[in-house]
Amino acid sequence: MGDYLFAGLALILLTALFFLFPMKFSKIGKWVIPVIAFLVSVLGIYIFELLTLWHSILSMILLLLLTAILLQRLPLFITSAETIQSKKTMEQDNRINQSAHSATASKSTSSFEELSDELIEKR
To answer: Which of 30, 79, 88, 99 is deepest in the core (most CB within 10 A)?
Structure first.
């Protein structure tokens, strides 16, 4: 029972550390990594109580390999490539907005000039 309590306290401490210190994890990653660590530790404690020593060592190695594969496939880290890509898309959006704004401004200017020309001709 003490082992499970220690695993729970480690989960709380690890979660607090992930949110207090600046790390390059996404918000989802800051939640998923401590939860996965907690699940692996609880399963390891249970497996060690249930099986013999060499069975528990082999099953923990298998469990850690599966966890490593899972963590590689999940987008938990904020990479510089993602930051650069988001900056590029923001610049493209700004350019599109500016060109659309200038196009509407030129249309309104040209329509104003046409109206003023018509009014001058009517006089």
So the answer is: 30
